[in-house]
Amino acid sequence: MVPNFAFRFMSHNSGDDEFCEDTRTSIVQYGPDPPEILELSDMIIMFRDRPIGAHDNVFEGEIKSLAGVYRPCVVKFSLLNEQIENEATILTKLGSHSNIISLILSGAYTGLLECNFYLVLDKCHNQNLGQYIMSKREAGELCNSTEMLEFARQIVAGVTYLHDNRVIHLDLKPSNVLISLDFSRVKVADFGLSVVLREGQCKIFHKSQFGTNGYRPIESFGNNWVSRRTDVFSLGTVLFNMLSCGKNIFGGDEHALIHNVMNDITDFTGLCAKNPNTWQHLIGNMIKKERSRRPSIYEVAKHPCWVGDEVEITSGYYDEEETVDDARLCTDSKSDASSRNKEAEGAAARNLLYAIRRLGCLRKPAVVIFNRAEFTLMSFNPATYDVSLLSTYSAKMSRSYFSAVCLNEYIYVFLYDQSVYRLE
């Protein structure tokens, strides 16, 4: 069975991207020996004799716009398997973001004995971030600290977008960060191992191993819970790699990497930054063995190291939600409804506080929470975390009186704010 995805077609009109959607599955048949140039669809050509990098399933291609003009693209082409199907599903869910690789189109290409699946992606530079940094190191050149800092900001922005959409990447590393053709932008790529949390879920149990040695945390070794903070660990190792011109924070010996991760053995020498102590504070907390001791991606983005000045910081991070009984939070239990609602309410209040901080709404203390399960209205004070019942909800109440944020089983309402936000 060939999966059915919503395919996004890109065309250019006066320099602006326009998208149209087609939910039909694209299937093309070929004989036993596919040619070097494959017409995957009326719009896509793939060149099998032009592989990209060391990958044996990524090729150069061309996509025809609605105006009939071809432009370069990248085609990931392989037998239909769980990883490429998972990547297509997640990229379709994510849509468009400047720091996430964009899925232009996906479809099936069938032969006599096999079914291949392809993803058509943005064309980026043939060197990924890891190769770019290593080429500088091998040439004896120092990485441009200003450029690396800007790339780091963009990677954090990309991971923030993933976590906003409940996606955990699970394989963040320099080689999975692509660089645009003009070297102005980086994009997080390769979502074959990624997972998506359900609404209200903070972690997911992962039976198998995942990730890449030197960039993966201790929970990646299998049979453990993973969360958004699993990505934070990997991101910390990526940031150090970027700011040290290619060094691995757990050492250069492949055989010692796992041992050093498990025993928290790190080497911060070679950190080339204007404020190394501040960066060491951030990265050191990001790569903590315990997930609960790592900052969230939102705390990473707000850290003083991005300002550029050296700041003495002694505090760490702690997230109580990461230490609560995982089975009770992440699986359906037979506990009574009021207990489940109370847990959801506490998690929702914390998520709402993050949302308010990110939206700059801390000066708006009048926040109303609509509990759809119990049809009640509650007020929420971000400064004190106080939640109090206001009144019973009336089905006749017009939503036009206030703007809403939908999150978990609740609609969050910001009074006196005409903008409408949706968070998942």
Overview of the structural elements:
Helices cover 26% and strands 25% of the residues. It is an alpha+beta fold. The chain has 3 domains: 7-121, 2-Layer Sandwich (Phosphorylase Kinase, domain 1); 129-323, Transferase(Phosphotransferase) domain 1 (Transferase(Phosphotransferase), domain 1, Orthogonal Bundle), CATH 1.10.510; 337-414, no CATH class. The strands form 6 sheets. A 7-stranded mixed β-sheet has the order 3-8-9-7-6-5-4, with helices on one face. Strand 11 and strand 12 (186-188) form a beta hairpin. It is globular.
State the main characteristics.
single chain; 424 residues; alpha+beta; Phosphorylase Kinase, domain 1; Transferase(Phosphotransferase), domain 1; 7-stranded mixed beta sheet; 5-stranded antiparallel beta sheet; disordered N terminus; disordered C terminus
